[in-house]
Amino acid sequence: MVIDILMILEKGIWFGFAALGFAVLFNVPQRTLLIVWIMGALGGMTKIILMQCTIEIVIATFAGASLVGILSVFAAHNKHTPPLVFSIPAVIPMIPGAFAYKMMLGLIKLSGAEPSGTYYQTLSETTSNGLKTIFILLALAVGVAIPLLISRKETVKRIKHKSDSI
Amino acid sequence: MNGQNIQKVKEVEELLLDVGTLLMSNGASTGRVRITVNRIAEALGYDVELLITSRSLMLTVTEENGSAYTSSVRRTPPHGVNFRIVSGISRLSWRVIEDKLTVEQINQDINRLTALPYYPRLVVLSLVALAGTSFCRLFGGVGWELLITFAATFFGLFIRQEALKMRFNPYLAVVFASFGASMIAGLSVKLGIGDAPEHALATSVLFLIPGVPLINSLTDLIDGNTLNRIVRGVNGFIIAFAIALGLMFAMQIYGI
Lengths: 166, 256
Description:
The complex is a heterodimer of chains A (166) and B (256).
Chain A: H1 2-25, H2 33-52, H3 57-79, H4 83-91, H5 97-112, H6 119-151, H7 156-165
Chain B: H1 3-25, H2 30-44, E1 46-52, E2 56-63, E3 69-75, H3 83-98, H4 103-114, H5 121-138, H6 144-165, H7 170-191, H8 198-203, H9 211-223, H10 226-254
Antiparallel strand pairs in B: 1-2, 2-3
């Protein structure tokens, strides 16, 4: 079990760096960099932990992305920055690159092959990888968007103003 | 309707067009553009109606307690993503309400925001390459594969930046970058460096993934901006296709 925790922590660190790279690519303000790193790491770790509990990757990704979405709402309060500045770089490490790549290879193979022999096996593998890619992408985007929709009518900041005035 | 009022409305209109097109071309969702433009207009005492599409912005500004109005359309330049501007304008819109900024002050602040620097090029290249390496590690890569991914991503992003500087079509720039990165990573597969060099090949092109269009596309869908959602989605899809095209060329050359 100790090894598992170490593994999860290590993956968390890598998730964080992947998020940081995209944050810099999107030129986010400097004061948000550390938070993006932490949010990327937490989101990724949530996904890994859930997957270790034998939860399906699509649902695990959805949970990770939702966590990022919720955290981005709080971060937006604190740093006076729209939530998407945090959430987009932080969820990008969860994008299903491996599945997308395998699907692509499958499609190339299928486009060149005759429908016989291993064709049908490749077809079913490609379908499976493609469906996973699409649904993980959907889970990411919806997971990020839902906390925002729940938390605000128009903008994150107005909630704070209202609660101040009460 | 006297001349002075019209002059003022025109000033506000110019300002709102600046704000809207800047937000749109730098990666804000349609809903955010609408909210921010409305907020600034309201604070200055004007009503505004917007038509937001992905490549142009149209708005009508009316005085709240008067009859002067004006309409105008502006093209939205196709830009990269720059969240520093999105974030800056969002803060600015709150300062317009709280500090009662004038049109002049807002214009100055926008000029300041657009002049804000990017991160140094070497820092961007290295950190994005590190992100590529992280992807490779997450997919189970070790040792050599990590190094190769770093080099491939670094080089790929460099190609993309240069291609954009030379004003190539943005999709073509993605094809070039994807091709360059996978040529480097593919070499390791061809020569059999490391245990599982496919990891390097699969992850070397991931820095190109169209994350902002895809996520904004979903945000727009949920907000009800269906048309913009489709435009963004198609845009993201073409970028994904461009990545695949570059990767495919490299793989055909190496015969992997």
